[in-house]
Each structure stands twice: as C-alpha cells, then as structure tokens.
Amino acid sequence: MASDARDPNAPKKPLTALDFYAQAARRKEDAANYDTADDTQTQASSELYELEFNNLSDAEKATWYKLARRDKIRYKKEMATYEPPVDSSSGCRLLLMGRFFPFDSEGIPFADTTLIIKEAQNSSHIGEDGGTGLNVWDGAMLLLRYIEKVPNIVKSKRVIELGSGCGIVGVAAAICGCKEVIMTDLAYALPLMRENVDIHRAAWKDTDVVVSCKECDWFQPPPVDELLGHDSNKADVLLVAD
Fold it and tell me: Which of 229, 234, 221, 224 is nearest to 65 (CA)?
C-alpha cells in the first residue's frame, strides 16, 4: 500500500476563485493584525471573505474566475510531467492494488446484451488521480450488477455519474432505460469513455435515451447548469463507484 506521506515536490492543487479573492483581501489587511490574530479571528475573516465574494457581481467575480482557470491549467501542465515517488516498501503508486471481481474485456453479459468495455494502461503521470480512470474497478462492477438487478433505480430517470472512468456504469444505466445519463470525469478519461459509449449506442438507438460525457474536476467543478445542460438543474439519480 502506498505511503500516506505527501510528496513536498508534488504540484500544488489549483486555487478556486474564492481562494484568489481571499488572498488579495488578506494582503490589503494590516500585517500587524495578523501577528496578533487568533484562530477565531482568522476563521471569522475567512467567513467574511466568502460572504463578500458571494455578494460580488458577475463582472467583479470574472477576474477571480479567470485566475482560477489559469491556475487549473498550470496544475494540469505540472501534473502531466510529475512522477510521484515510488513506495520503496511495495513499489506501488496506487492504493488500489487490483481487482477482485471478474472483468472480461472480451465481453461482460449484462441484461439482454454483452458489454464490450475498453481499458487502457493506467500510469502515475496521467491525470490527477494516477490514471485510475482508465480501468474498470470493483466498485463499478458491483454497481453494474446492482443496476442490472434493480433497473428501476435508473429507468426513465435523469442520471448523473461522478468519476465515470471507462463508462461501464453509465452505459449500463442507458441500456436499462434511463431518460438521460451524464457521465463525468477528468479530461484525460473522456476519450476512452466516449469510445466505449459509441461502441454501445446500438443498444439504445431505438429509444430516446440521451448520453453525454463531460469534464468534471471535483476541485474545480463547472457550474451546475453547464454540467446538466438544461433549464432544470436537477438530477433524479447520482451514481458514484470507487
């Protein structure tokens, strides 16, 4: 199992628009106030900054969102070349050591069809999660079977899935008759996810099921209306595996 110690050389997580606003607000404060401030005062200041930020106009917030987008790009570029240290005790970089439940890339019987799900070799320098979104893990297999046994949890409903990875769960929801499924993950996982969706489109081509694959970074989530893409910003079912 990988060490819990954090690598001091790892790229720093991207800051949010609120983070940038709060930093700028703090710099305007008298440094002497911070020398004497206790934790309660600091917490109060943080809450005040959040309140101030929420009360800004969209035009005023635009500057801080722009900085956040730039920092997100910075983080992705740094992660693309970052190689985390190997745990000398195990030689492993991932906490997920392997699969227990059977997965067959040649085909998985599901409902009245067979799922053909492509995977790719994960690598520690791919994405922000060690490239784990390129494989099918046990949690996805279990959720897949649960949906197969209880299809009414998704049937005729609007579904959003977080961390869709290869797309096996979202594809299963579409086959089981959901009204819409929005599959999400980090940008690096989307090409393989979309490929797996395209492979199975014939399974729901005679229905009105809508399937989409979108980027969603949990540290910098897109606006809800952008993610859902409808006037209504509600989903009936939230799916999460692993």
Answer: 221
- For residue 214, list its beta bridge partners: 184
12 near 103, Cβ under 8 Å? Answer: no
**Strand intervals (E) in 33-96:** none
Question: pLDDT by residue (tens digit) across 15-44?
Answer: 888 889 988 888 877 554 655 555 555 555
Q: Which helix (H) or strand (E) holds 74?
A: helix 58-81
Please tell me whether residue 214 adopts helix, strand or coil conformation. strand
**For 146, which DSSP code?**
H
What are the DSSP E strand ranges found in 186-223?
210-215
Tally of CB atoms within 10 A around 154: 24
- The count of C-alpha atoms lying within 13 angstroms of the C-alpha of 95, restricted to the half-sphere facing its C-beta, is 5
User: If you search the block for the tokens 């001091």, which residue do you land on?
Assistant: 8
Backbone angles phi, psi at 87, to 5 degrees: -70, 110
Query: How confident is the model at residue 92, as a pLDDT?
Result: 46
What is the rounded CA–CA span in Å between residue 103 and residue 99?
8
Q: Which residue has the tokens 């628009």?
A: 17
